[in-house]
Fold:
Amino acid sequence: MPASRRFERTLGNDFKEAAEARVWLADCLQSLPVDARGIVSDLVLVLGELLTNSVRHAYDPEAPGRIDIVLSVGDEDVLLTVRDYGRPMDPSKRHEPDLSQANEGGYGLYLVRMLTDDLEIDAPGGVGNRVVVRRGIPATAGARPAPGPRSA
Amino acid sequence: MQWELEHREQIAICRLTGDLDAGTATELVSVLEREIDRGANRLVLDLGRVSYIDSSGLGALVKVLKKARLGGGDVKLAGLEPEVRKVLELTRLDKIFEITRTADDAVRQYLAGTR
Structure:
């Protein structure tokens, strides 16, 4: 059975804490094979966008709010879960931006979709938002020249 | 995020250092809009020391671009790190902004008379 490493972090609805969480995520992903490091910056951006959504839209600016992050790093993929307990996301705002023009907003979830392989959004118990994304680790990642004849 | 401003022949060159994200974008817009209001509507943003930009950062760049172009100016982006270039390409904003290798290249383009 493939091994999986799990990391957890909780933060408040604050952009400074969100920036610190991005650094934490990059540190957690340093265990990835060297060949897979290219996905680290993608996942850092994905986490940043998800945290921005929670901080900006789920909670009122002055009200306290909790955001939980769970990261699972397996041999084949990385799972990232961001959970808040504020206002549920408005599905009507999940539209694709018009890329033929310059937009001042609307790129956040689009970037998350572009940089992940799977995206699920729900609200367990009807409370807040839970976003789960999966990003596969390239099959070639971790491959190293064999030191000698391989055993079957 | 930190920035340094330099002026050359009514061109404002802003050198940014740090992350251009939801926590810093609003202040950057204020700084750059103030420059435009003072008459420097030809801007160069040197992003050579920015390795992280998110959708809020992109929104800030677009907001400043629109204001600059409204007054007949422009915003040129210089020195993009690979991570930043990738985000601009994904959103196709690399087709909207003029992108140069260095800030000096952008200044030369302005002085050569292109926008």
Notes: Chain B is about 40% helix and 30% strand.
